[in-house]
Each structure stands twice: as C-alpha cells, then as structure tokens.
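INFO batch 0412 | record 1 of 1 | parsing
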Amino acid sequence: MTLGVLANLLTATSKGDVPALPGLADFFPEPFLFVGTPFAVNRITLTRLVAVFALVLIFSLGASRMKLVPGRLQGFLEMCLEFIRDQVVGSIIDSPRLAKMYTPALTVIFLGVFAMNITGVVPLLHIAGSSVIGVPLVFAIYSYFLFIIAGIKEQGVGHFLKNQLFPPGLPKVVYLMITPIEFFSTFIIRPATLVIRLLANMVAGHILLALTFFATHFLFFYAANYLKIFGVFTFLGSLAAILLEIMVAVLQAFVFSALTAVYIQLSVSEH
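INFO prediction complete | emitting tokens
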C-alpha cells in the first residue's frame, strides 16, 4: 500500500468523525463499579472475574459429572490435565515424587494464565486479563515463591543458597564476580522476565487485534468508496490475528508454567 493510499485512509471519510485509534488508553479504562474505593471495577477487572468464574464453572461441571467412561467435557478436561502433568511437569522435573508434588501448583499457573490470556479474543470482552501488569506480576510472585520454597524444602536454607550463589569448582576469587551475577539472575531476572514476557505478548496481541478491526471498520464505514475494497484484506488480517492470539494464549501459558518447572528443578538439584 503506497503512502498516498495511507494518507487517504487517514483523511478520506464519508460518515462523520472517525472513531479514535486504539492505543495504550485501552489498558486503563475508567471504573464503573465502586468508583473511588479500593474495590473499583473497570473493564479489565471485570474480564478477570469472568475468566476466573468461567474456569471454576467448567471444572466444577466436569468434576460433578465424572464417570468411568468420560463424556466429552470430562474427556477434554482430563486430556488438558494429563498434558500439563506429563508434558509440562513430568518432562522437566526428573523426580517423580517432586513432579507429583508440584503438578497441582503448575496446573493452576497453566490454566490461570491461559484463562486470563484467552479473554482477548472472547466476544464482548476483547482484552486479555493479563494485558495489565497486575496478573503477570501475581503469577510471577507465585512462581518465585514456588521455586524458592522447593529448594529450601529439599536442601535447607544454607545449602540452597550455597548451590544457587556459589557454583562449585571455581577459584574463590572468581566468586567475587560470579556470586552477584548468580544472585541477580536467580532472584531478580527470573521473575522479571516472566512478567515482561507475558505482559509484552498480551499488550502486543491486543494492539494488533484492535488495529486490524479498527482498520476494517474504518474502511467499510468511513473511507471513500474506492478504498473500501481494502477492508476485505484487513478483515482477513483480523481473522488471522485472532488465530495467532489463540495460539499465543496457549503458548504463553505453556512457557510460563514450563519455566516455573525449570526453576523448581534447578532449585532442588545439586549443581
């Protein structure tokens, strides 16, 4: 598309004012319930509540109708749980005892992150609950305490810190440089990267979806007649963006839970 066509997209209108472009303001909506209190509810808060309610409802229905020969819902839920147990936890944590111990916590992370992510493509919600830093931060703190507590339980405080901060086999003088790096990497970089990775992907995904739908709306209803044909391409692009966002929602849930499992394994193992 040439610069001239782009200019026309921004200036050629046929039906009044063009709606505002989507942007960072989407992530800071005004509250509409309990305004002025610590319990104020805005669009993103509501989205998170819907995600939690839906997750609890789906698994409650599945558990309440459990049969020896599973139905479709029970079979699907069992498949999801088996995937997390075998592919996320069992393939990373090499101790069967520890894998069994931490499977419930890692399942909460996987399903929780996915539920918060997938709301970005749910009709009427249209924004991920994890696209504002609160949710990624909560899950990162949960992951942080999981791997630290796992290491302390298995090795004790002193031995855990020694293994994390003083890799064996190095000259003592080297620890003056290595130990601060190991501390920063283990106790600061790990949770920070979990937050940044999830947040950045969800923000980028929302902006991509919003822009493609905005362009489609603009071209179909506001652009000059000879430009409307481009709306077909932006509409197809928006469908592709939805599929991409669904894939990213699953992938980020997998990455977040898998990295937490890796951190647990590193915490409990001897270097």
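INFO post-check: The radius of gyration is 24 Å.
INFO record closed
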